[in-house]
Amino acid sequence: KDLTDISSQIGTLTVGGTGVAGIVGYYNHTNAGSSNPITMEGVSNFGKIEGSDLVGGIIGYRQSGDYLTLKNVANYGDISAERAGGIVGSSGNNTIIDGAFISANVIGEFEASLTNPGRKNTNSAVNRAFYDANSTLTLGGEQKDITLIMKKLQR
Description:
Blueprint: E1 3-4, E2 7-8, E3 12-14, E4 18-21, E5 24-27, E6 38-41, E7 44-45, E8 48-50, E9 53-56, E10 59-62, E11 68-75, E12 79-85, E13 88-91, E14 95-102, E15 105-113, E16 125-131, E17 136-139, E18 142-143, H1 146-153
Parallel strand pairs: 1-6, 2-7, 3-8, 4-9, 5-10, 6-11, 7-11, 8-12, 9-12, 10-13, 11-14, 12-15, 14-16, 15-17
Antiparallel strand pairs: 17-18
């Protein structure tokens, strides 16, 4: 049930739909409760991903449900959509990112995050997230200061 040491090297993926990502576009695992957590570890994306909404490097869209932990994941592909995330495009409750590296440009029209725009949801957190100096974050056409954003994210 867990995913370990998977990487995607798709080149460029352009899709007009929602829930698009390098590894899992749409994730919904809600029938077992918190007693059946899922872990994705050592997963990485190297492809550029473009979609209309809910686009991420690893997961595009994840509904609330069982606990999901993304551990030691990385995204090296540029991401662009209305709501975009370097690791997760958008997620519901119970999502933990523990160890993430982003080397990409993330462009979102309404929401954008280097890791996960939904990180303030119940039982969700981001720990040990890093980016390289060439990464950029653009929200609504305005480039944001990544250093300030990452400091707030790690509190």
